[in-house]
Amino acid sequence: MRVLLLGGHGKVALLLSPLLAGRGDAVTAVIRNPAHAEEVAATGATPLVLDLERGDDLADALANVDAVVWTAGAGGGSRERTYAVDRDAAIRSMDAAERARVRRYVMVSWIGSSPDHGVDPDSAFYAYADAKLAADDHLRASALDWTILGPGTLTLDPPTGRIQRDPDGDGRVPRADVAAVIAASLADDRTVGRFVRFGSGEVPIAEAIVS
Ligand SMILES: NC(=O)c1ccc[n+]([C@@H]2O[C@H](COP(=O)([O-])OP(=O)(O)OC[C@H]3O[C@@H](n4cnc5c(N)ncnc54)[C@H](OP(=O)(O)O)[C@@H]3O)[C@@H](O)[C@H]2O)c1
Fold this sequence. Notes:
211 residues, nine-stranded mixed beta sheet, 7 helices, binds NADP nicotinamide-adenine-dinucleotide phosphate
């Protein structure tokens, strides 16, 4: 599979690229900082420098691609940057994927991404919740074969290979397991059209994502 990975130098992305490259997928990892190219190339991906926030044209990057994966994010910066990256750039990438006739799109969202997320509009977290929901809704309304992944709080713990769907609590989960969930979702079309909310658990990933 030829995968365009948006947010290629992110912590999840750096764990995902070796998984995909290791099974023979061709990964092009979009990064905004050329200084990250060497580190990204060492994961088995081909780095491509583009700024998603600036609206750089993705058309060339999307030619001959089978799937797009979104793991980018403003990382809780200002409200303006959060909307610019987590909502507007994400939506642009979906529209570009549709125009390029790339069918598959896997979005890394978050566990609470629903209209009843309950985040206080005055809280610093509100822009993120609102931006992610807008992006997720845009993806659901698109013609793409989408999967929305909703992990809970991300950790840097080692992978377990096991998750729990719709967990109680904050759904903490290692980024390495999130990477494995992305890889497994790309490989299983039964995840198309699903919002997979998850945290760490006891169910093997390949089984949990289609349960
Ligand atoms: N943190 C959590 O607990 C949590 C929970 C649930 C879901 N999530 C979601 O999980 C996903 C991955 O998380 P993570 O920990 O891997 O995030 P991360 O390490 O912060 O990675 C995000 C990446 O996005 C890139 N990026 C930001 N703006 C960009 C732009 N304008 N153009 C191109 N790339 C840009 C960043 O580039 P630089 O490396 O150059 O900064 C960074 O590499 C995110 O979508 C996040 O919303 C996070």
